[in-house]
Amino acid sequence: MKEKRASEQIKNILNSSPAIIFLWKAEYNWPVDFVSDNISQFGYSPDEFLDGYLEYADIIHPDDKEMVEKNLNLYMHENKYKGFSQQYRILTKVGDIHWVDERTLVRRNKEGKTTHYQGIIFDITENKKVEELLQINKKRLTTLLELNQMSNQSVRQIMNFALEEGIKLTKSDIGHLGFLNQSETAFTIHASSEHSMKNHNVEEEQHLYPVEEASPWGEVIKRKESIITNEYMSNSPKKCYQ
Question: Which architecture does CATH list for 2-123?
Answer without folding.
Answer: 2-Layer Sandwich (3.30)
